[in-house]
Write a structure and sequence with these properties.
By secondary structure, the chain is an alpha/beta fold. Helix content is 53%, strand content 13%. The protein has 3 domains: 162 residues, Response regulator (Rossmann fold); 113 residues, GAF domain (Beta-Lactamase, 2-Layer Sandwich), CATH 3.30.450.40; 189 residues, Hypothetical protein af1432 (Orthogonal Bundle), CATH 1.10.3210. Bound molecules: fe (ii) ion (FE2).
């Protein structure tokens, strides 16, 4: 039987994502939407470890850690946290949390944490078997040693996270990464090589020779070589990839006098993951992103202006979608993605000829097929722009129907991205309440009735209900 992991979070999206990842790693994942239900699950059967959110209704994550530790001190608790709440995560460690993870969740990071947790538990359980006093003393000594190591490890991880999350620009981040990596291996010559996408070579910022992109790096692995030092001794060269959103961004090359051990390697990998998350944020929220977003928004406005009947449509769909997302307790990060995806959801219509898009009469079936290409066209436009990556899938699937009868892929139910299901409701409602060349707008009540009728067929029933009761008619709730 595979081991069980309990995930506690009030956000269903986070619960699902984490369960999927944990199950992919061969564990059985169980979920609870708050601390109280987590405790009742925990009381009825043991778990290998518990992942918990901090901000939850009824009982906070910190209170939950206390309750779990009071029941079984050996059950490790891992805290789920956003970028902004690293301080809370550190507080949680004081309450006995073993580690923390933040979004975007990565399989490697979860695997690393679960392996560590298993090693620690195995040690504790083995220790339970000893009964005589001498063995007990040995165990205590052993545990004390392990604990000390663990405290050191936690401190390093905390230091890495703190250092990485408080920094601003890419340059600071790279120099902090080199500092922390130097600390981890005690000493060594460490440099960071960004990847030149055109030549597929890593560029030496000091002007020296570049590095070729090795197969192992592409596979997210480490490249190891022995090299001759200037003194004639053997040095060890290890190159780690820095991967952002599945793409190689650069390489960290470390030349050390001794071979990097697995503990150090784990820390370097963790450091690179944190740096990648932070860089993604930097790229997303600074400079480049703003430019691209304003260009795309201009495109969306041109599109709206092209068809007077749909002017302001994207703006209204965006605010309705965000209303749904907030009522759904969607994370801030996802709301940021939704804002982009909703405001650009019909951007692909730039690729549809005027004579079809603006045709006043009924469309032929061939013309309808051409219009149906707009989600794919829009997704393809955005897919080449790295900071827009997360919006691509959402845009591609905004015309899918819950029953699988939508387009372009005919995805069904939960296979349709959650944010696309939100846009689908907002988009349909706004279209129904706007005048079109071939029909008058429906009244508010009639449109609500249509959404109600489409529950389970066109729309995700839960999202449709939230839209009707919390967004369209919030006062009645
Ligand atoms: Fe559309």
């Amino acid at each position: 039987m595979s081991e069980k992991v309990l995930i506690v979070d009030d956000n269903p999206g986070i619960r699902d994502t984490l369960s999927d990842l944990i199950q992919m790693l061969g564990y059985r994942a169980f979920t609870a939407e708050d601390g109280l239900s987590a405790i009742s699950k925990f009381d009825s059967e043991p778990y290998l470890c518990v992942f918990t959110d901090i901000m939850m209704p009824n009982m906070t994550g910190l209170e939950l850690i206390k309750e779990i530790k009071a029941r079984d001190v050996s059950t490790p608790v891992v805290v789920i946290t956003g970028y902004a709440s690293i301080e809370i995560a550190i507080d949680a460690m004081k309450y006995g949390a073993s580690d923390f993870i933040s979004k975007p969740f990565r399989v490697k990071q979860i695997e690393y944490i679960l392996n560590k947790v298993k090693r620690e538990r195995a040690l504790l359980e083995e220790n339970k078997k000893f009964s005589d006093e001498i063995a007990w003393h040995r165990v205590v000594d052993d545990l004390a040693g392990q604990l000390e190591k663990r405290v050191q490890e936690i401190t390093t991880l905390q230091a890495i996270s703190e250092k990485v999350t408080t920094l601003k620009g890419i340059k600071d981040l790279v120099s902090a990464m080199i500092d922390v990596a130097t600390d981890i291996v005690d000493s060594g010559r460490i440099s960071f090589f960004p990847l030149d996408r055109h030549t597929q070579m890593f560029i030496d910022p000091e002007g020296g020779d570049g590095l070729a992109l090795a197969h192992d790096l592409l596979m997210e692995g480490v490249v190891r070589n022995k090299v001759l030092s200037t003194l004639g001794d053997t040095d060890y060269e290890s190159t780690f990839p820095l991967i952002i959103e599945g793409q190689i961004f650069g390489a960290l090359k470390m030349i050390t006098s001794k071979r990097i051990d697995s503990d150090e390697e784990g820390k370097i990998v963790y450091l690179l993951q944190r740096v990648a998350e932070r860089m993604e944020n930097v790229v997303l929220y600074e400079g480049l992103y703003e430019n691209i977003l304003s260009t795309l928004n201009t495109m969306a406005k041109i599109l709206d202006a092209r068809d007077p009947h749909t002017s302001q449509h994207s703006t209204r769909v965006t605010s309705l979608s965000i209303g749904i997302a907030k009522a759904f307790n969607t994370s801030e990060d996802d709301i940021d993605i939704l804002r982009i995806a909703a405001s650009l959801h019909d951007i692909g219509k730039v690729g549809i000829p005027d004579k079809i898009l603006l045709k006043p009469g009924k469309l032929t079936s061939d013309e309808i097929e051409i219009i149906k290409r707009h989600p794919d066209i829009g997704a393809d436009i955005l897919s080449s722009i790295v900071p827009m990556k997360k919006a691509v899938k959402i845009i591609r699937h905004h015309h899918e129907h819950y029953n699988g009868k939508g387009y372009p892929k005919g995805l069904k139910g939960d296979n349709i991205p959650l944010l696309s299901r939100m846009i689908a409701v907002a988009d349909a409602f706004d279209a129904m309440t706007s005048d079109r060349p071939y029909r008058k707008a429906l009244s508010f009540d009639a449109a609500i009735h249509e959404v109600e009728k489409g529950k389970g067929s066109q729309f995700d029933p839960e999202i449709a209900d939230i839209f009707i009761h919390k967004v369209a008619r919030p006062k009645e709730w």
